[in-house]
Every structure is written in structure tokens, then in C-alpha cells.
Amino acid sequence: MTAEGEHQVNTKCQMDAGAKRNIMSFADLCEVVQDNDLKMKLSKVIGYDDKGIIVSPDDSTSASFCYTLPLISHLTESRQGQTDPSDVEMLQPTAPLSSAVLSKLENHCDCGKLPVLDNGSPDDKFISQNSIDVGQRVTYRCYPGYVFKEGSSRYITCKADSTWSPLNTACEPRNCGNPGEILNGYFNATSTTFGEQVTFYCDAGYRIVGRAYRICDRTGWDGQIPTCEPVECHRPGLIANAQIISGFGPIYKYQETIAYRCLEGFEMIGNSVIKCGENNVFVPPPPKCIPPVRCPQPELIANGQTISGFKATYGYRETITYACTDGYEMVGSNVIECSENNVFVPPPPMCQPPVTCADLPLISKGITPSPPNGNYWEYGMIAQYSCHNGNSLIGAETLVCTENGEWDKDPPTCKVVRCIRPESFLNGQIVAGFGPIYRYRHTITFRCNKGFEMVGKSVIECHENSTFVPPPPTCRPPANCGNPRKILNGYYNTSGTTIGSKAVFSCHKGYKVVGRSFQFCTTSGWNGRVPTCEIVRCHLPELPANGKIVAGFGPMYKYRDTITYSCNEGYEMIGNRIIECTENKAFVPSPPTCKPFTGCQRPDQLANGHIVTGFGPSYKHRETITYSCNEGYEMYGSDVIECSENNIFVPPPPTCRTFIKTWGKNVTLCRTR
User: Fold this and answer.
1) How far is it, in rounded angstroms, from Cα 484 to Cα 519?
2) Cis peptide before 291 (omega within 30 of 0)
3) What one-character DSSP code corresponds to residue 125?
4) Who has greater pLDDT, 390 or 601?
5) CA atoms 217, 223, 228, 232: torsion sign
6) What secondary structure does DSSP assign to 259-310, as a single string?
7) Helix H or strand E encompassing 100
8) Closest listed residue to residue 202, CA positions, set 254, 247, 257
């Protein structure tokens, strides 16, 4: 432990050899110690020993010290800011240093880890440094593709208290700006910042030449702006047995056309007119001219018939429509068409017997269904089972014959099923299915009494093992009342909706609560009635003596309705001329009063001052006088006074006094001896 008033110094800057002392700038030390406005920058260098005593590193007789001056008063204006250290009597040095000063000096040689900058870093020369000295400036840089935010600072400084100055900057993605306009085209871009891609497109009738996109990199937009050239189509090759009748080319612009015609004795397959498309090709493709198409009549289909297209021979794209005889199913298309190869496409269909399912097995104590036509079960037919009286059907009641000739479900069974009505249902009742004996799949429907909530399903069903599924529900007091009812022209606040919670109702401004303003959540729900919100009404106040109403004659007033007053001739109004009906059913402010008018008289002349506005000599209620002091004097009191209802000025007139400057402040100066 050290003696009282002394403090052990323990800093990162202490040297190992006792003969050497830590060195720092005297100006830096004073910067830490001083807390006043009168600072002096000295160039000498000082150190401190292991007891915190400030000494010179080379000659203690010429050391620099920090001194504390006593209260300085009556410092003239001419000497302010020009005080010479030699004019100040040297006092005792400020050593040993205080704990507060030592704590500030504790880490003065190293500000620690550099602050992190998103998308940036300190310059390379600072990254490898283990420590940064007080006063040293560190500059930052942004990563490629990022730039400093406009107007921000790119550096920080290690301050005297071993903390970094704020890093007031940010690295933002570089903005590459407009990627370039493209004639007869356009571009789409979600953003133009670093890493984003812009895509170029051409208008209809033009095609893109060059790479269709550009990317914003660290130097700007990469690549070149593409161009949009007009679409051009070359004339297709000659068509056998055809001739062009319009659009002779040989080069065609976008949407220009060629019209064809077949030579006599040939038929056209395709479109007679083709158009130059956006991909430099004609659409649709050119037609063909072939000898006349003749498809012979196909053979009749077995178990079917032709219902349209009765001809011996058929031309190009003429059709035949078929149908199958009753009891047969068509395999293939019911319409075929004569193609350019003189054959029908697709080929004629076939009519086959329908898909059938096997006969159904007999079931005990039940009735097995038979096919509707009495022969076989066809695809899509439905078989429905039933049981003899006293038996219940277990399983699927209906089966369907599927397309692969199999039934979709297994046949059911018939057995005796009897369920007994459950025991008494507490806090509830049965509303459907009273029993007391229930057959298979018969149901019971339950309902809870008012104020109780159901746990379980409200409907249960008798199953094949003669038990109800699911089990009967129970009724318990509600754990939650839900939201209270809404209130017209008002609202409610509630601590919750569980039992014991309270809902408090309030009305909007201009309305008042009628009825009890709260409800509690009970086992029966929210208790009591929801209040109502009625509009606020005010009664006509008494007419002020020597006054009258000029607007708002009542006698009843709604919320925010107003009354406007005036005083009779020879009287002046004390208060507000307009009052308003408030939410408390009272007018605010109170009605005014009308008093005989006498007025205020101008006060005595202001010594060392004068009137600026309001020269009088007599003043009505609320009229004012404004004062100003002469040069070299300052005002005590308000510069504006007002004629009050008591015919005197409020506040009283001010006074003007001589201006005196004083100085009185503890300061700390640095001095060399």
C-alpha cells in the first residue's frame, strides 16, 4: 500500500529499467488534467515516476508542471485570453496525481483494437501494428467495389484518454449509374450498384447484336453496350409446283409477307401467306404443293357405325366420325382425318366389349346386389349391399367396378351391433339420438349447459364392437370468456379473457358512459350488461350581467358546441368571449364577466430607457406597452407589460441598470519555471 495522497502508477508504457522514466508530451498530459478554457500548449517533455510524481526526463530543475490557479476575479476584458504565465505566482505542483487523473493516464500509449468497418478495413500499414500511440491518426479504405459514403470522414484518432474517436463513415456499394442507352431497345435493372446485372432488350422488329447484359464491377459497367439491328428475312427456297404472287424480295423486313399459289392440278398443304418473324425466319413455314389428296373410304368397323362423313373418297382434311354399338366401348379416336399422304390419321377406332368385374360373393345375414342388366357388372357400375333386420352393415356399403375389372373395396359383413346410452352427462344434455339402444353407426349429439365448455367431440358414433367412438365428451367451466362485446362510440381495455379478468369500458371524446363501466369474466361468461356511450350535452350557463350571447343560443349544447359573448356598451370583457362544451358536460373556460371600463394610465417615464410601442396615454384591457433600455444599460424585469382587468399594468414596468462584467472561475494553467 502507498501513503495517503499517493497512487501507484501501473501503465502499459512503464519501462523495465528504474533509471528510465515513461515519456509523454507535456501538452498531452495537460490536456488530460485540465478542465478549463485557458490552456497553454508547451513543447517540453515530462515523465512520471513510480509514485506518480511529475518530473523531467533529463533535468528536474527545469521540469514543466501543471499548476492550479485560485479564483481569478476582476479580470479585465483587455487581458482576457492574453495572460502571461510569468504574471501568475507559481504554486505547488499537482503531484502526487489524483486517482481520477491516473485513471485517465492508465492506457495513454495504446488505444487498443481498431474499430471494424463493414466492407472496408484500415490501410495496410496499420493492420500489422500492435499498438497505436496517442494522437496518431489511422486512415481506412473500402474494399474493391465499395466507396466511402459522401461527406463522411475516412480516419479516426487515438485520443488522450486512450479511446478512439468515432468512426463516422460507411462503405457503400459503388453505383455504376446508367449502363448506356440502346437505340431501338431498352434495359431492365433492379439496381445499378456493385455486383448487379442489367439486361438489354430490343423493340419488336429488331434483334440484339452483342452480349445482352452488363455487370457493375469495381471499375464500372463491364463489356460493351449491345446494338439493336432491324430484323431481316431472306426469301425461302423455291417451292415445287408453286409460284409467288406477292412479296418478291429477296430481302424482307419485319412482318413483311410472301403470298403463294399452287400450279393448276396441285393442292396446297399449309398457309398461303407467310410473314417475316422476329427471329429472322418466316412463320409459319412455307407451304407445299402436292398432287390432289384422295383418301379411300376405310372398311366398316366391327360393332360400330359411321355417323358423319359418308363418301366414297375424301379430300385433304375431310373427316369421318364413328360411334360404337350399345354395350361396346371405343378404343381410339371417334374422328379421323384425311392426311396429305392419302391415308386417314389417326387410323379408324375399334369397338370392344366393355370391361367387367367378377360376380360379388354372398354375405351372411345380408343381401348381395345383382347387376342392373342381369348379366354382368360393367366398368363404372355401383353395387350396394344391405343387411337383414336386426343386423348392422360393417364395412363399405357400396363397391365400384374399376377400369381394370376389379372392385374398389372388399365386400362388407352383417352382424348384430348394440350400443348402450352412456351414463348421465354432467353439466350438459343430449340433443339428438336419445336411444337408449343404438345400432351400428347410430350417433348421439351432446350440448353443454350455458357457462360450460365442451372437452371432446359433440357427436359420438356406435361402432362394430358395440362401443361409442370417440368416447362421450365432458362439460367444464370455461377457462376463457373470449372478447367482451364491442361498445358503439367507445372501446374497452382488459387484463385478459380468463376467469377473474376485468374489462373496463370507456367512451370516445364527446361521449359519456351510461351504465356500469366494467365487467368480470366468470364461469358464466362476462357478467352484467355492456354499457352504452351517449353524446355529452351541456346546459346553457347563466347570462353574465351587462353582457349578451351573440352566437350559440342553446338551451342544450352537444360536445364541442360553443357560445360567443359580447359586453354591453361601456363595459369591457374579463375572460374569453368564446366558451366550449367539453366532455365533462361543463363549458370551458368559464363564461366571461362584463365590468365597467375605466382602463389603465401610462406609467411614469422609465429612467435610462424608453417606450418602443404603446404610447397611450390611456389603455384598454389587455393592451400592452413595450420598453427598451438605453445603450450601456440592461433591463431587469419584462420588456412587455399589459393592462389587466384591475386597471393596472401586469407585470410592473421594468428598470434599466448599468451593465457590469465579472469573472470568477477556477482554471488550470501550464507554466514552465
Assistant:
1) 8
2) no
3) H
4) 601
5) negative
6) EEEEPTT-EEES-SEEEE-TTSSEES---EEESPP-EEPPPPPTTEEEEE--
7) helix 99-105
8) 254
Give the closest residue to 449 by CA, choosing from 480, 474, 472. 474
How many whole angstroms separate alpha carbon 178 and alpha carbon 166? Answer: 35
Spatial CB neighbours of 544, under 8 Å, sequence gap ≥ 6 = 565, 567, 591, 592, 593, 594
> Residue 574: is its pLDDT beyond 90?
no
One-letter amino acid of 515: G
In whole angstroms, how far apart are CA 634 and each of 77, 237, 607, 658? 18, 107, 12, 6
Give dist(CA 413, CA 75) in Å, integer: 119
Q: Which residue has the higher pLDDT, 62 or 559?
A: 559
CATH for 419-476 (2.10.70.10, 1.20.1290.10, 1.10.10.1100, 3.40.50.2300): 2.10.70.10
- Distance, in Å, from the CA atom of 175 to the CA atom of 208, rounded to the nearest integer, reads 26
Q: How confident is the prediction for the chain on average, in pLDDT?
A: 79
Comparing CA positions, the residue from 340, 246, 245 lying closest to residue 289 is: 340
* Cα gap 42→433, rounded to integer Å: 105
Model confidence at 76: pLDDT above 60: no
Phi, psi (degrees; rounded to nearest 5) at 105: -85, -10
- In terms of Cα–Cα distance, which of 388, 394, 443, 386 is closest to 417? 394
The listed CATH number (2.10.70.10, 3.40.309.10, 2.40.30.170, 2.102.10.10) that belongs to domain 232-290: 2.10.70.10
The answer, as to whether pTM is greater than 0.90, is no
Q: Which helix (H) or strand (E) holds 124?
A: helix 124-127
Q: What is the CATH number of domain 295-352?
A: 2.10.70.10
Phi, psi of 633 (to 5 degrees): -125, 150
